[in-house]
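Problem: given the chain below (115 residues), write out its structure.
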Amino acid sequence: MTPKINLYVGSLDDAYTLICQKGLTHCDPVPDPLWAYSFADDRDLILFVLDFGIEHWAGGNMMLIPERCMADAEAILRQWELSAYVHPCSLFWMEVWGEEDEAVLDAVFGEALLG
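Solution.
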């Protein structure tokens, strides 16, 4: 199998735990977790993008925020009182080069969002 990088819903800690518990040897988590912010309203998304920047826009009503940028993103949500209108979700990237490992990951975390 050619190595590929998949995006899963879940935490990086959960990914490491699964790798250890199941003895997975054909995958490697990318150590830069993300948060997906799903905005309930386009106006809230636009307000956030104008302040935070468009480089993390994933299309639709979704922003992908690297964990290293979380403090800035959270400050903007507080400043504009948007927290109640945003649905956060943790994500992680996983490099996979074995079909069996990928099947285990898909079974636990759901089918990869990207990859």
